[in-house]
């Protein structure tokens, strides 16, 4: 950043759209930038490339079907792997959520950073329904590089366990328990995480600009963390996601939750594993 810079001049310099640059940094195009400020330059097609439905405040609950009805090969593959697996995939076109082992509970690890982000954005929306972008700079390191220090700071700023628990409950999550002292040890299920991402995709508790800000951050996770599902889909796929990984006494828990658009179809997903022999093995399990 140099004196006189603006989001417009920076977008010209890096040949990106100014609204994409603003969205991925949780800003709006009119935000003033300052010298030495760090900005994320979009690495893939921005969230405007994802076709989003009109914001729905109170969508109908999804119909539930077995995941094997959607993808028997995925279920067979995951069941062939070591450890345990649960999955939930929501297809907006049909309104169906496909689930496998829906009652399995997992340590959320860094996927809990998404509820923390949504708690802050929902509050911002409640305070200013016309907000055109988040004013919280720590959202970028928390989501894009999975910075734990930023997450701890924002967890406290959001109001801690009580506020984040209230947020996930308001979004329809019934089997998620937020830990008061160590947010990464919160527990959840694959259907709950799919409901969380579905609520974001549908724009619940956010205005359209804040929804795009959240998806912009999730769509620009750094390359070293783009393993698992992003590795197993076509290059043309748009994907906004967050991973979580944590070693436990019985092995690694490795998860990914997100929204992707591929071959003209949109899917909201949550894939969660436990008891993986190693972190790399868990990543390969999610790649499928």
What would the principal axes of the Cα set say about the shape?
globular
Helix content: 25-40%
Q: Report Rg.
A: 18 Å
- Average pLDDT, rounded to a whole number, is 91
| CATH structural fold name of the largest domain | Beta-lactamase
**CATH structural architecture of the largest domain:** 3-Layer(aba) Sandwich
What does this structure look like?
The chain is of the alpha+beta class. It has two domains: 1-42, Membrane-bound Lytic Murein Transglycosylase D, Chain A (Roll); 53-287, Beta-lactamase. Helix content is 36%, strand content 19%. It has helices at 7-14, 18-24, 67-70, 72-80, 113-127, 139-144, 148-158, 160-170, 190-201, 208-218, 279-287; strands at 63-66, 84-91, 96-100, 106-107, 187-188, 238-248, 251-262, 265-276. The chain has a six-stranded mixed β-sheet, sandwiched between helices. Strands 4-5 form a two-stranded antiparallel ribbon. The mean pLDDT is 91.
Chart the SSEs and their pairings.
Blueprint: H1 7-14, H2 18-24, E1 63-66, H3 67-70, H4 72-80, E2 84-91, E3 96-100, E4 106-107, H5 113-127, H6 139-144, H7 148-158, H8 160-170, E5 187-188, H9 190-201, H10 208-218, E6 238-248, E7 251-262, E8 265-276, H11 279-287
Parallel strand pairs: 1-3
Antiparallel strand pairs: 2-3, 2-8, 4-5, 6-7, 7-8
Helix pairs in contact: 2-10, 5-7, 5-8, 7-8
Question: Which keywords apply here?
Answer:
288 residues, alpha+beta, Membrane-bound Lytic Murein Transglycosylase D, Chain A, Beta-lactamase, 6-stranded mixed beta sheet, 11 helices, 8 strands
